[in-house]
Design a protein that fits this description.
- The protein has 153 residues and is an alpha/beta fold.
- 48% of the residues lie in helices and 14% in strands.
- It is built from 7 helices and 5 strands; from the N terminus they run βααβαβαββααα.
- It has a 3-stranded parallel sheet.
- Strand 3, helix 4 and strand 4 form a beta-alpha-beta unit.
- Helix 4 crosses helix 6.
């Protein structure tokens, strides 16, 4: 099953809805949920059902949605432009062609449960240790120290 989340009702998504109308609204294994609050019980229930977040973005600073999914133990399958380093717990797509995404998703879905569980655990650990508010603050402080003259700090 594929669960599609995001602002599907937004005007900016009209072309997406039109292009994928059949897939989003007619196929029994694809579920168009729309936007979900990442702190809601609905998202927690969805996270318990899913093994992977598929996020082939073309432009991100760093996807908070992917980091939140990882914090729930969901394995990322992302484009380089998602801003997430997948290290040894996910997949960074070499490109965002449909054929590449399809092949990657099929390969990942074929993983043995033990390997999937290990990847999920590593994704969770990375999200809760690397992508924290304290780490973000420390990185911002480090960047500001590098770019601002000492007298303005």
């Amino acid at each position: 099953h594929l669960w599609v989340c995001g602002p599907l009702d937004a005007e900016a998504e009209a072309k997406f809805r039109q292009a994928y109308h059949r897939e989003l609204f007619s196929l029994p294994n694809i579920h168009a949920l729309g936007w979900l609050n990442l702190r809601s019980p609905e998202f927690a229930q969805l996270a318990n059902r899913c093994a992977y977040v598929i996020y082939p973005s073309c432009s991100e600073g760093q996807s908070g949605a992917v980091v939140n999914a990882m914090a729930h133990g969901i394995i990322p399958i992302v484009s380089r432009d998602s801003g997430i380093d997948t290290d040894d717990f996910g997949v960074t797509l070499p490109d965002t062609r449909v054929s590449t995404i399809r092949r990657t998703v099929r390969d990942m879905a074929a993983l043995p449960p033990e390997q999937c569980a290990a990847l999920a655990s590593s994704a969770h650990q990375t999200a809760t240790q690397r992508y924290t508010e304290d780490n973000f603050r420390a990185k911002i402080d480090q960047i500001l120290e590098q770019i601002l003259p000492a007298e303005t700090r």
